[in-house]
Amino acid sequence: MKRRLLMTMMAMVLAFSFTGCGNKKADETTATTEAASEVKDEFIKFVGTDIPKMDTEEAEIMKKFNSYFAEGTAVDTDALLKDLTDNLLPNYKTFLDDIQAIEVKTDEVKALKDQYYDAMNAQYEAMQKVEAAVKDKNKDIQTEAQKLLSDAQSKYTAYNDAVYALAQKENVTLNGEIATTATSEAGSTTEANTEAIDPSEAMTDEVETTEAAQ
Hints:
Blueprint: H1 2-67, H2 77-100, H3 107-136, H4 139-170, E1 172-175, E2 178-181, H5 200-213
Helix pairs in contact: 1-2, 1-3, 1-4, 2-3, 3-4
Organism: Coprococcus eutactus
Keywords: Signal
Protein name: Lipoprotein
């Protein structure tokens, strides 16, 4: 009788243990599903809402910057320098701060945000080099600016590739700059933002002329 009671109690303990394992497994599955949903939702908001707003800010700044290098016209370096110092660079710094202010929680979207920021920051540093090159009439600094612009574009391409990869992983279709949930694989990546025109060729004659006059 005692043995039978002991076996019954053991069976009850085992049954309780199995039930506990089952609940734990179900809880883990639910948590995983919720985490996956959080990544997808945050990714859609980031690519579909946050970044388009950032790109609009950046496009306005770069449109003005690029206007100084219109084909067939001489660069007004005095006007460019003043605009860089008074408007373009301060506005770009505000744009970078706005990127940093985007709130993201998931590691996947944080990584995208960091890549986007790095690309935009490289372009900002290139514009700072342009300012220094104009101010000092230094062709070596122009070359540094050119390299930074190339780095910025490479980093932006890497960011776009990362967006596409995460869209595929999360089963999100990208339509222009708007991401929407869908059952098919990701379509196309976002269009590249307005990149800076390489000022090196446009400014070369202006710098050389100034140097020769000295």
